[in-house]
Amino acid sequence: MNSKVFKRGAFIAVLGILSTSLISAELLREDFNSGDLSVIKNSLSVRSDLIDDGAGGKCLNLEKTELYLPMAQYFNYKQGTIEFRIKFTGDPAQSVQKSNPIFRARGENGSEKEAYWNSYYCIFGWEIGLFFLICDKNKARTTLNYAKAAQWKQDEWHQIAFTWKVENPGKSKFCFYVDGQIAAQEEKENFEFDDAAWQDAISVKEPKTKIEHSKNSLTIGNLWGTPTCKMALDDLKFYDNVRVYGN
User: Fold this and answer.
1) Helices and strands, number each (H, E), in the chain
2) 63, CA 20 to 30 Å: which among 90, 92, 109, 247?
3) Bridging pattern class, strands 130-135 and 243-245
4) Model-level pTM?
């Protein structure tokens, strides 16, 4: 057996992570420790704030970060996985009263649609904890929520993963993991995206306005631009395959 493959497999097993593919379909890996974001060269626009992660490295201050990345390079709307670590950097008791967008991807197609149409969101707040919100072209919403996130302590890191596989006809499946354990999952019959809208959004290479950025990009951080809860994000990864977590 190739020793490199064995070592990599052993490392993944220790983390309690098993890939569904022998080949890692990794689209993005960013640990923020270099002081410069490696995705800047491919980003559509950047507003970022790097702070100490408490272990000698750097992490992303979500409140003061707004990254717009091209979906064609970093996001597969049909199936995939996002991983990251997250923590409160301020008083959690004050933070839970606010909200903080963590990431969003949306197939907008230039249409004036309802905000959560044809999209993926990860949000903390609105007094319901950390949740993933997925909406299809019919505005049918699927919400996977982890209410216990509101009880996390300041400067306590937690590992998050979210996987999705959209099939129509058939069952679409969404899974949300916290610290290596399943927190929520849901299967949906006839969950249907507007594929043409997604393809149009993916095809946009150089949006000319902030509105075009917002509609046609994978967004990380405070896309609302308003004061949010105090949180940091680290070790961000996107994959274009569904990964499996846990023992």
Assistant:
1) 5, 17
2) 109
3) unpaired
4) 0.83
